[in-house]
Amino acid sequence: MTPAQRQAEAARLNNLGDAEGKQGNHQAALQYFEEAIKLRPQVSW
Fold first, then answer.
1. Domain spans of the chain?
2. Superkingdom of the source (predicted)?
3. Which residues of 5-41 are buried (b: 16+ CB within 10 A; e: fewer)?
4. Cβ–Cβ under 8 Å, residues 32 and 13
């Protein structure tokens, strides 16, 4: 995966986490956030 692809995928996962959290699905949100952090640990989410 290129750096640009990693960035895009991390952003997508973060957005999914936000959406799940807003719907009250906190466990699912946490899983998305954890995956985003794995892809881009240097980003301050």
1. 3-39
2. Bacteria
3. eeeeebeebbebbeebeeeeeeeebeebbebbbebbe
4. yes
